[in-house]
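The protein record quoted in full:
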Amino acid sequence: MSLFRKKDLSAAVAETREKGQLKRALGPFDLTMLGIGAVIGTGIFVLTGTGALKAGPALSVSFVIAAIACAFSALAYAEFASMAPVSGSAYTYSYATLGELIAWIIGWDLVLEYLFAVSSVSAGWSGYFQSLLSGFGIDLPLALTAAPGALGENVITYFNLPAFVIVMLLTFLLSRGITESKKANNIMVIIKLVVILLFIFVGVKYVKPENWVPFTPFGLEGVFSAAALVFFAFVGFDAVAAAAEETRNPKRDLPIGLLASLAICALLYVIVSLVMTGIVPYMDFENNISHPISLALQVAGANWFAGVVDLGAIMGMTTVMLVMLYGQTRIFFSMSRDGLLPKVFSRVHRQYRTPYGSTWILGTIAAFAGGLIPLDRLAELVNIGTLFAFAIVSVGVIVLRKTRPDLPRAFRCPGVPVVPLIAVGACLFLISKLEVITWAAFGIWFLIGLGVYFSYSQKHSMLNELSQ
């Protein structure tokens, strides 16, 4: 059936060798920094407070559960990335194993993970940036500090100007080239890692073990519920796979970048959550969930460090937005090259060697969304989209082992089919812990995507043209 026609992986790899394609400038260190840049941000500076209210001190266990779900999926991603070093991440992998319709659904689904995550994080970035400005006695006009209705019906706001401006600046940076973007990302990642390590060093002295008792006040259900929420803290590590075409030695470096960034982030999350709940009793986060790290420092009497944390949070969220927007442009680049989206998304700038038009279109959409839309439920919506994509990639590894055992694999996912099946089970389990309204919103988004596919993408597909 034409709905399940598959793209040949060998042909996909051959496309990357054509002249005028993306510039290969990333090594294993850059990829690890890219992964850490995408992961450490909102999760550690904001969601730790919300997660503590669901799991108590056992929040650290929730992070471990979410990390395990990601780790099994990361092994599947690593096998695909080493076998097919092309842009597109889960979209490309699904196209080669499960067919065009499934690939389209995944590509459409990844918009939730990448583009909407940029808009969501930009709003959090805006709050920390305004807090930092206030420390210098600078206050923006209230009407330009948040999206309409974001601060309640009694507060009139029209536009979140800082959120809009930061996304447009990152769009400009990405449009100029991957070399410039990676330098900026690496610097900001190092700064935020230093801030997190300083928090651990300063905070551990104020830990009171009695605050960890009881360790699981809401039982296992609370631990699993928090795991489904804080999964958002790991969203984005798969953006490393989207950088395949710009990696110098993708068969070796991509698995390193995927697994190293995930391991480093998981370790930091566990330590930070233990220190934080050891300083502050978990119930005290109820009225301070937006700045949990700052609250811990206030309780510890280290107010001098609060401004440093604000700077770390700003750096953390900036790199998240940078990598997420980067990943989205590369996925649309691949979908456009396959004919499923208009050609404007796959045109490469002669000088900068980037998908220039695509970057500005997607960046502008994300900027206006962050400035105009209060995205209260977006964390869970991003989660369900990501978990769905992870599950599909894990299934794809099993399918391709059976259908194309001849393909060279520089990295092989261990324990196939058991490990990929565990990944699928873990993802579906976490999805089941999300709220019903999230399922409903995801269903609506899914139906819109099907409408676009059947009205445009199916007819313009490159595989459709080749079959005629």
In short: The radius of gyration is 21 Å. The first helix runs from residue 9 to 15.
